[in-house]
Design a protein that fits this description.
The chain is of the alpha+beta class and 75 residues long. Helix content is 17%, strand content 37%. Strands 4-3-2-1-5 form a five-stranded antiparallel sheet. This is FeoA family protein. GO terms for molecular function: transition metal ion binding. Keywords: Iron.
Length: 75
């Protein structure tokens, strides 16, 4: 079974951040409030699906789909 990432979520779908699969990117994401155990919700996506806007830690965060793919989730 493959692990799901934030990039797999649909608009309005919620999940819990569990871990990261890219060590360098994880430091950047942690600084932006993407902490393990935090709930994340996709707010909107650009017309072609990249970038995406998500709600995490009480604010909206915009990121590339490739960055979101490094955030592993449970839902």
């Amino acid at each position: 079974m493959s692990k799901r990432s934030v990039a797999d979520l649909k608009i309005g779908e919620r999940a819990i951040i569990r871990s990261f699969n890219d060590q360098l990117m994880s430091l950047k994401l942690l600084e932006m409030g993407c902490l393990p155990g935090a709930e994340v919700c996709i707010h909107c996506k650009a017309p072609l699906g990249d970038p995406i806007c998500l709600n995490v830690s009480g604010y909206c965060l915009s990121m590339r789909r490739s960055e979101a793919a490094t955030i592993l989730i449970d839902n």
